[in-house]
TrEMBL record:
It holds the Pfam family MOSC. PROSITE patterns: MOSC. This is MOSC domain-containing protein. Residues 19-168 form the MOSC domain.
Amino acid sequence: MGGTVTAVSSNSEYSFTKPNRAGIVLLAGIGVEGDVHAGVTVKHRSRVAQDPTQPNLRQVHLIHEELFAEVGEAGFEVAPGELGENITTSGIDLLGLPVGTLLHLGDEAVVAVTGLRNPCLQIDNFQDGLLKKLVGRDETGAVVRKAGIMGVVQSGGVVRPGDTIVVELPEEPHRPLDRV
């Protein structure tokens, strides 16, 4: 099972969107070099306010490019990096991966999947009404979060658009993703 990196993005300043780059460097245990969310402990403002000593389980944010087409059908235009992700992918059901999945990106980098991104109101500030397309409910009434997944860097390396992604599932039993 695998896919492709379609875009990479980073930003050294707090901003909802992240500009696309020719490549990003992943640093083991830290995240994306130079990105505002890189670090051993939490960097997202709301989490820092709660407890700045929490481990950073959100070092790398990945979104599947297929989501852009889905929200496009509802009239929203979203491009890679605009939802704040570091890595945009194609060909992988990111939301269906279990916790602990290893994503081998390019020649060296490895990201361990920690959970789902919990979409926030900033999404509606970006495009009014988009949040409702990224958070919904399934047929049982359970909350479904579609705004991508989060991970921590296991092995560092350069990641560029066009790089392959190899998915390595953890041993069973698999634990479904939950928000982190």
